[in-house]
Design brief:
The protein is globular. Helix 5 crosses helix 12. It is α+β, with helices and mostly antiparallel strands. The protein folds into 3 domains: about 140 residues, D-tyrosyl-tRNA(Tyr) deacylase (D-tyrosyl-trna(Tyr) Deacylase, Chain: A, 3-Layer(bba) Sandwich); about 290 residues, Bira Bifunctional Protein, Domain 2 (BirA Bifunctional Protein, domain 2, 2-Layer Sandwich); about 110 residues, Rossmann fold (3-Layer(aba) Sandwich). The strands form 6 sheets. It has a 10-stranded mixed β-sheet with strand order 8-7-19-18-20-21-24-17-16-11. Strands 1, 2, 3, 4, 5 and 6 form a 6-stranded mixed β-sheet that branches. The chain has 16 helices and 29 strands.
Length: about 625
């Protein structure tokens, strides 16, 4: 079966005439239909569905139900649609499948209707237009996968260490972000719709999907590539600011599933794994840096004196996310995880290391001008035995958190913290994370020698201090949207801005002088370019502002005579007469502690092709 799913504000149809010799019988009341705020399931029943129609029904209903829950609608229209395949089943097979789908959806609590099979119909549809409003699915007759449902209990932990029922908790006005997180995670209220504004900003800098690849894979134009490299380098700087030894490593992204620890660890991630079959062997594309770092660490001779320490890699990682959940820069199938693993002697030392990471994670999101609301996934036994640790974590956050109690011993970790921002549309978006892993050291044979000469298996903290490279960029762009909504100038942090200073010569007569200035500024560690295009001054200044260049220096006769620059500061909306040294000093001070990488494109704008998203 092929299904096209459209979330519609309004849908209506009207029967016109027979499409097959023996169409489904219809009453007068069924010749027209109308639905508001409904999920329309355009269904093509195929010959292959004749093998096991019962499984087809269950698999189709499961897929439709999943999308209906995402888009927050209880109304579903099952609509026969013969145009999604050329291998059509007969009406004798198709009609019962469609009827059973409607019945099964009703049994599961949905307001389901079905339009008649075998008729030509006219229809009108108004698609909502949000990222999940148009999805397609291929349904097979395979045995439906067993539901892997984990019973979770939720509670809100306040600053006094008290637990509250999320259903009755009285949120304070300043806890609106926490409220949105709780509604989505604990109360299962769906996400808001709408097209995110940050997608326009992605395309401004050349962050795009790659249409020649599998869905969910990104490409990076020159400015985007520069931003990517800056964030990757910054993630290494952050990891090295923790006051503990950190070892940078690199490795492969493909691991042999016949190796027992690789297979056991891969099984933890289930259907979201990429697998590759080569020469009758199966390999998994890594979910994060775990496989590679753990494979290395098992070969290291580690003493208790070395602990704690970390290993780090910006790891290309692969997750087979549902196509309908993909979101540029946020949920992708190929991502880059600045993966830090910290080994400790025991759980107490691991908690101390976790607190260090926790503070750093909060410090970093604060530098973007944002704040987190957090989910602490844990077991009841670990919480009861470590209440003081949880209160210390919450004290850093300075606000309540959502606790998610999972069953004992089903995960390799005892605590897994998800740090989320609330995006422009009011949706929680996880950025950073850490978890204390008590299972993988033994699984992979990673050990250290304690003071008595005995072999011990260390707890391992997994952490992405600033999130994936893509999600950090997402957070920066979402922050720009937030600034715009507050009536401010949308911008990136200066260190992450592709072009920090643009020089614009008034005419070609001043180009040579401007190039000398540009070279001097560039050598001082500022990313600078020169707009030498034969355009008017006003157009070139306007283009620089549209491209979010924070410093714009116009160079003409007065600037040559005085040695000063006429500088426009985009974010402040001000102009200033400044020396070259003063401009460099201001930019250098504002980017102190962050990485610097030169331009990834020609310095002269006249040499650049135009990027057209």
């Amino acid at each position: 079966m092929r299904i096209l799913l459209i979330h519609a504000d309004h849908f209506e149809y009207q029967i016109l005439e027979k499409a097959v010799a023996d169409p489904e019988a219809v009453a007068d009341s069924e010749k027209t239909g109308v639905a508001e705020n409904a999920l329309i399931a355009f269904c093509t029943i195929e010959k292959a569905d004749e093998k096991n129609p019962k499984n087809v029904v269950l698999n189709a209903v499961k897929s439709i139900q999943e999308v209906a829950d995402w888009v927050k609608t209880n109304r579903i229209v099952v609509y026969p649609y013969a145009h999604l395949s050329s291998s059509l089943a007969s009406g004798d097979v198709a009609i019962p499948i469609l009827v059973d789908m409607r019945v099964e959806l009703e049994r599961r609590g949905y307001e389901a209707t079905k339009s008649p099979f075998g008729w030509y119909k006219s229809f009108k549809i108004s698609c909502k237009g949000h990222p999940l409003s148009e999805l397609s699915r291929t349904i097979t007759s395979e045995e439906p996968a067993k539901e892997s449902h984990v019973e979770v209990e939720y509670a809100i932990l306040d600053l006094d260490g008290q637990l509250h029922d999320p259903r009755t908790y009285a949120f304070k006005p300043e806890e609106n972000d926490l409220k949105m997180l709780v509604e989505k995670e604990a109360l299962k209220i769906g996400l808001a719709g709408g097209k995110p504004r940050f997608l326009d900003y992605c395309r401004k800098f050349g962050l795009e999907w790659e249409p020649y690849s599998d869905v969910g894979h990104m490409r990076y134009e020159p400015e985007a590539a520069l931003m990517f490299d800056l964030v990757a380098e910054y993630s290494w700087i952050v990891a090295n600011s923790l006051d503990m030894p950190v070892f940078g490593v690199r490795g492969t992204n493909m691991f042999d599933l016949s190796v027992r620890p690789v297979k056991e660890h891969a099984d933890l991630y289930g259907a979201r794994l990429y697998q590759v079959n080569i020469d009758e062997k199966s390999y998994v594309l890594r979910y994060a840096a775990c496989h590679q770092q753990f494979s290395m660490l098992k070969d290291w001779s580690i003493s208790y004196r070395h602990l704690p320490f970390g290993t780090f890699e910006v790891a290309d990682s692969y997750r087979l996310e549902q196509s309908g959940e993909l979101l540029l820069c946020f949920r992708v199938r190929k991502l880059h995880m600045p993966d830090l693993h910290v080994l400790s002697r025991d759980i107490e030392e691991s908690k101390a290391s976790a607190m260090r990471l926790h503070r750093k994670i909060y410090e970093e999101i604060g530098k973007l001008g944002r704040d987190y609301v957090s989910i602490y996934n844990t077991t009841k036994s670990f919480y009861e035995q470590n209440k003081a640790f949880f209160r210390e974590l919450v004290a850093v956050e300075k606000k309540p958190v959502l606790l998610s109690f999972v069953p004992e011993s089903i995960y390799y970790w005892v605590i897994n913290v998800e740090y989320t921002i609330i995006d422009e549309l009011g949706r929680p978006r996880e950025i950073a994370t850490f978890q204390i892993d008590v299972g993988n050291a033994k699984r992979f044979g990673i050990s250290y020698t304690d003071p008595n000469g005995n072999k011990q298996y260390p707890p391992i903290i997994h952490s992405a201090l600033i999130g994936t490279v893509e999600r950090y960029i997402f957070a920066a762009l979402d922050t720009a949207v937030k600034l715009e909504k507050e009536g401010k100038v949308p911008s990136l942090p200066l260190w992450l801005t592709p072009v920090q200073l643009r020089i614009i010569p008034v005419t070609g007569d001043f180009k040579e002088y401007a190039i000398k200035l540009m070279t001097k500024i560039e050598e001082a560690g500022v990313r600078v370019d020169l707009d030498d295009r034969p355009e008017s001054i006003s157009k070139r200044v306007r283009d620089a502002e549209v491209n979010w260049v924070p410093y714009i220096a116009v160079v003409g006769e007065r600037e040559v005579e005085t040695g000063l620059l006429n500088v426009r500061k985009r974010e402040e909306g001000e102009r200033a007469s400044m020396s070259v040294d003063a401009v460099v000093a201001e930019i250098t001070e504002r980017t102190k502690g962050y990485p610097h990488i030169g331009l990834k494109m020609p310095r002269l704008l006249s040499q650049r092709p135009v990027y057209k998203p």
